[in-house]
Amino acid sequence: MTDADLASNIARAAGAFLLSLQQESADGARGDREANTLILRMLRDARPDDPILSEESSDDPARLESRRVWIVDPLDGTREFGERRDDWAVHIGLSIDGVAVVGAVALPRRGVTLSTGAPPELAPANDPPRMLVSRTRPSGLCGKVAEALGAETVAMGSAGAKAMAVVLGDADIYLHSGGQYQWDNCAPAAVAAAAGLHVSRIDGSPIVYNRPERELPDLLICRRELADAVLAKVKRFN
């Protein structure tokens, strides 16, 4: 089985499991914990030699010695899960030599799993462009950039849901400056890049994974034709 197929299978399985927990009125904390157990078991069964960096597990410094590291978020959007919203996700990513090469993002409430193995064809751009912002803590920088671009802002929950909204053509720009971790964007970045989108830090530099620090504070995923304009506005206001 290819890495992409494995990532998709695990993301779908974890998503289905989380939906079943929702039927039991489980909260986000239980979802995080039990989905993590399922994902770790499936990854270790299939790729026993690969280390795993997960939001819900203790960090193992041995990952820094490996070229291949699975980077996973068992439940991205814990709050949204608990509120029974649609905008939460499961992230299964694989970093090779610091690059997000393989990824799958499941949107279980929508019945969709997107992966690097079969990225969708990009839909036509929106006019005016639609820019995603956090529904609970939108940043001042994002607001300024959106206004300067004449973009319509769309509030949404999890990082994975936002990134996949750009992949699916529901939005055009996902700019994040408020702080994230590697598991928040490894799988989404891999899927977005495979779909032909621009993916970088907000200064335009490449995103490097499997670093000692787990934090990865900012991210830009957008249509390629908008990247230069977005980066220029970020440099102006940041």
TrEMBL record:
Domain of life: Bacteria
TM region(s), chain numbering: none
Pfam families named in the record: Inositol_P (PF00459)
GO molecular function: 3'(2'),5'-bisphosphate nucleotidase activity; metal ion binding
Gene Ontology biological-process entries: 3'-phosphoadenosine 5'-phosphosulfate metabolic process; sulfate assimilation
Co-factor(s): Mg(2+)
Protein name (record): 3'(2'),5'-bisphosphate nucleotidase CysQ
Organism annotation: Sphingomonas suaedae
